[in-house]
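To illustrate the input format used throughout this study, we show a single complete record. The first block contains the structure-token representation of the backbone; no residue identities are included at this stage. The design step must infer an amino acid for every position from geometry alone.
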């Protein structure tokens, strides 16, 4: 583990048998693991999703949010979440950034805001507990996402992302950046997390990241 709290697994010496295991996990094992986690997770979380959706509906608007994200090989897909923002979020964001230079600088660097005026009261709760991301297990079942992988980015953010590691992986519900650099690193820094994940790709690494994810959710570190 580095000083920044990143999980880093040293790349083992490549042998024919180890390479076969790596290729097997990448080709078949990871997908099997995804389905073994995502299908039960959808079933277990269904009541939580429905209850959260009811509270969001009382706040007004559609409880589910669909947004285009970049997937494996640059393919565009629709990612699903529980809505945590007001209905006219984009208009409010533009006005807020125009009136707040410091917020604009933060947005341009991180593509996130520490004090985001678009997030509703219910939205803050479901983000803190990561409940808003539960519908993404459906994206895992359909094959657009993986349980563990790079944080999904929007098509408009591609020009801000250096490198190509992201495009060689399915984006994940959780991953190195999500558990190690949430909100504290620049958007461009995600590429370093993605590259390290790509070069250290293994079942062991995925399980480590899942363990860190459970710990982060339990602490309520979502944003």
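Output of the design step:
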């Amino acid at each position: 583990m580095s000083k920044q709290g990143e999980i880093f697994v040293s790349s083992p010496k490549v042998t024919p048998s180890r390479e076969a295991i790596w290729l097997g996990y990448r080709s078949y094992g990871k997908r099997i693991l995804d389905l073994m986690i995502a299908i039960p997770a959808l079933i277990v979380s269904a009541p939580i999703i429905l209850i959260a959706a009811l509270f969001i509906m009382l706040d007004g608007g559609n409880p589910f949010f669909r947004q285009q994200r970049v997937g494996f090989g640059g393919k565009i897909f629709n990612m699903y979440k529980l809505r945590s923002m007001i209905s006219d979020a984009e208009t409010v964001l533009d006005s807020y950034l125009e009136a707040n230079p410091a917020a604009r600088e933060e947005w341009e660097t991180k593509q996130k805001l520490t004090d985001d005026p678009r997030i509703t009261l219910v939205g803050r709760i479901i983000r803190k507990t990561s409940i808003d991301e539960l519908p993404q297990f459906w994206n895992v079942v359909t094959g657009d996402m993986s349980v563990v992988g790079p944080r999904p980015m929007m098509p408009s953010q591609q020009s801000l992302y250096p490198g190509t590691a992201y495009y060689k992986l399915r984006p994940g519900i959780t991953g190195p950046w999500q558990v190690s650099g949430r909100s504290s690193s620049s958007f461009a820094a995600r590429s370093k997390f993605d590259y390290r994940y790509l070069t250290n790709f293994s079942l062991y690494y995925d399980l480590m990241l899942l363990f860190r994810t459970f710990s982060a959710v339990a602490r309520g570190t979502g944003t």
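Structural context for interpreting the output: The chain has eight helices and four strands. The radius of gyration is 18 Å.
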